[in-house]
Amino acid sequence: MNLKPMLKSLHSCLVVFVSLIALSSTAAPRHVYLTWQGDTSRTITVNYQTLEPSGASTVHFDTKPRNGRIGDYRFMAVGRSHQIAGLEDGREIHWVELGNLEPGQTYYFVAGNPKHGFTTERKFRTATGGSEKLRFVTGGDMGIGPDMATLLQQAAKFSPAFGLVGGDIAYANDILTNSTRWDVWLDHWQTNMITPAGYTIPMVLAIGNHEVRGGMTPTNSRFYLRYFAQAGERSYHARTFGKNLAIFLLDSGHLSPHDGEQAEWLDAQLAAHHNVPHRMAVYHVPMYPSVRVYDGPGSVAGRQSWLPIFDRHHLTVAFENHDHAFKRTPPLRENKLNPNGTLYLGDGCWGMGARPVLAKRRWYETKAASLQHFWCVDVSRKSVEYRAVNKAGQVFDVYPPNAKGAKAAEKVYEALTQPKSPEAQK
Ligand SMILES: [Fe+2]
Ligand SMILES: [Fe+2]
Question: What is the pLDDT of residues 48-59, one digit of tens each?
């Protein structure tokens, strides 16, 4: 009788049993999600949480699946954990940065430690380091309702390299007793932001007013700064993705004012990236609002402090949020229509209910409508294409107008924005 297969299967059963015991503990990983703190093609940060102190923060990873057999992974990285003072459940947030990765490579990983258990195996792909085509999705004002989960599912179907969020994320307002809002938001992302091929989609975040409580100090945005490993205590940062794309994640006056240090930093960053063909900004409060008044303080501050910088450096596009509606501007420069200007897309409706827009278009609106959506953005060396997608997965706006599907999208937009008949409104 051959005992070897029997022993092997007995061993596997034991491993599963021990893992189940470990995972039932509150020190087992609760959430796992991916961010970047630096080079997007050679690093990634695995963020995970445990609901009590759990010892070492480790990630085992490999270029081949190992189905959670810890000893089989060829690589291991060790990180650190921290807590949020005053958060009652005493959870730990673990940040483990993986380095020396290959660009555009698939990695399989588990996070945790042997004592308290590991996450199930997940896979991610590092960003390209070259000129390959790249796709991402973006939007803001998500919340934790069912529409947000559905919109994430639709976004994941496009197999984006990352999801870019323009603030107003879980609407926890940095109140510690709202921690369950973050739990729900993280669960939604973890469950739904997986591509059809099984890749976990990393998140790249900008701050919004609902990430902050009170004044402009880091202690007033504890969840945002301590849950997501991005740029330390700083609320704005830049990321490049391959050779064609640089993104500037700005703080529209929540922890940092528009002007002063941030504006100087933005000017210098845009100058340093002038050879990157597509330079994009994402921030929360729109300069060109579709719902709120044009002269709101956040919009005015943006136009005063950032607009001249955007214009000077020929910013490709700005993704705006906060107004909970859909809008697209024509290219604008010096606050006027200009075919060589910057495109402004918004306005943050990736889960929250859509607010009504005025019946008459403002001077800067090509389109504005009360529609939930996210933007799917395709970047190549020579061009960028933008597609707005709704909860049903319908593409209802495409820019530029000669891009594939633009005409069909016009028809969808017309149908979605047609005034409802009195009968239908009942
Ligand atoms: Fe919002
Ligand atoms: Fe907002």
Answer: 999 888 889 999
CATH of segment(s) 26-125: 2.60.40.380
Delimit the domains of the chain by residue range. 26-125, 134-414
Superfamily for 134-414?
Answer: Metallo-dependent phosphatases (3.60.21.10)
User: What is residue 1's predicted lDDT score, i.e. its pLDDT?
Assistant: 41
| No. of helices (H) and no. of strands (E), the chain | 9, 24
**From ligand 1's centre to the CA of 357, what distance in Å?**
15
Q: How far apart are CA 276 and CA 285, in angstroms?
A: 25
323 C-alpha vs ligand 1 centroid, how far in Å?
6
CA-to-CA dists, residue 184 to 61, 148, 178, 260, 310, angstroms: 27, 11, 10, 36, 36
Q: What is the pLDDT of residues 201-245, one digit of tens each?
A: 999 999 999 999 988 888 899 999 999 999 999 999 999 999 999
Ligand closest to Cα of 355 equals 1
Ion ligand 1: residues, CB < 5 A: 141, 168
